[in-house]
Amino acid sequence: MLPVVKNLKSGASIGKIILDNIISGKFKKKVEPFVPSGRQPIVFYAEKERCLREGCLFEDPQFPADVSSLYYSHSPKKEINWKRPGEIVKEPILLVDGHSRFDVVPGELEDYWFLAAIANITTRDELFYRVVPPDQSFSEDYAGIFHFQFWQYGKWVDVVIDDRLPTHNGQLIYMHSRNHNEFWSALLEKAYAKLYGSYEALKSGLTSEALEDMTGGLAERMKLEEDRSEVLWHIIMRGLKMGSIFGCSIDADPASYENKLSTGLVQGHAYNITGIRMVNGPKGQTTLLRIRNPWGKQEWKGPWSDESPEWHSVPKNIKGEMDAVVAQNGEFWIAFDDLLKNFKEIDVCHLGPDVIEEIFQMTEVRAPYKPWDMVVFEGAWIRGSTAGGCSKYLETFPMNPQYPLKLKANGTSTMIVALIQKYRRGLRKEGLKNLDIGFSIYHQGSSTKIDFENAKCINSKYNFINRREVIGRFETNAGEYIILPSTLEPNEEAEFILRIFSNGSISS
Questions:
Q1: Assigned domain for 76 exists
Q2: Average pLDDT in the 149-175 region?
Q3: Residue 445 Rama label (left phi>0; alpha psi -120 to 50; beta)
Q4: 403 pairs with which residues across the strands?
Q5: Do 256 and 175 share a structural domain?
Q6: If you compute the radius of gyration of the chain from its CA atoms, what whole number of angstroms results?
Q7: What was the pLDDT predicted at 292?
Q8: Domain check: are 226 and 325 in the same one?
Q9: What does pTM read for this prediction?
Q10: pLDDT of amino acid 448
Q11: Residue numbers of the domain that contains 180
């Protein structure tokens, strides 16, 4: 039977389990205080206790309520006043129970890439409460201090902020909830802005980047192409079995954001793929995908929508197993072929064994799927030492770091290689952009030294690109390999992290 993936438990119970485990000491998060360059760490619990003892509200010296936290190049064209939630509404709430927590509105930053990632983690409570710790509120021991946790290049960091938010005419100007009393989304965005140096640093990005920062997983973006339908079907089926997160959206520029199409779909909304099932329909066997629109109740109106006649051919017990109900709740089923026709790309975030294990430690619920196997390498390209450039520079190319890899599998297995250049978003204010980066993979063979001039690279069609992360997916046989991460040109310097996921057994 094909998988229909659900949350581990309800959001309220997951949050309570996590909070109880934190208080009792059963679960201690592997997290470090986020420390901006040249600053002292702020430890959330110690600083909150100080503020409560002294009867003051926290003011963050690392991310002050002034223009330096807003921008580094383009100043806002309106007057900005920083206000705490209690100065905006009478009874602020961090998180309202129920669907309101999905109801987030983009602000003037138009950071839809970040918004789409939020849409994905809000469908998985065990991931949401990893980013938004449940041990904080506006009602109990309020001290104007909050914290949020993000994955940064192999480790989790705790970003502490005060709750002063930028407003104009008493209204929040950036991301916020439609429920004006709810402030988790505005505070989460502020913490993410602090992580990268300013609100302006969040302009433009890829959903996959924010997904990784909020899960610690490995995120791919794939084009939905009908001539690759069989491959995509297997990726979705296998990914859902392994706990991966799938999101899809319809491209929209600011002018067309939230345009409602005749199909019932909405441009710019980030939809989540939460299940896959094969059924016998009026046209024979049909692959259906369960889709959720966390941002609204608008649903697909085509074949296999809630009240479409196709469901008449499906027995009641099967519909019950699929939770196929008639309700304007933002969740619907769609045929795989219609998914390919109506959406252009999907984002897939694979959770590694470290993430799966930590979810178990937090929630005491063991995930019902086998995680990917994973190895991780960290390194740096250093001018004159390890920054050899790509393989067209044969004299310097072997200078690049070389990482051995052993893959054990029965037949072929999937190997996903992901190379991240560190810290580049935060360095934008210094005029530093992403470098063109990539990697080359070679069979190790019997020789300990590879003749790079004559050796065949197994990812020879792979191109270098100036993104934070480049990813390649390969179907490979068991054996030994060498991976060389590099910049396109020699002597370009950056730190990097290289991750390899496989559904086989992999080691270095």
A1: yes
A2: 96
A3: left
A4: 483
A5: no
A6: 24
A7: 86
A8: yes
A9: 0.89
A10: 65
A11: 11-215
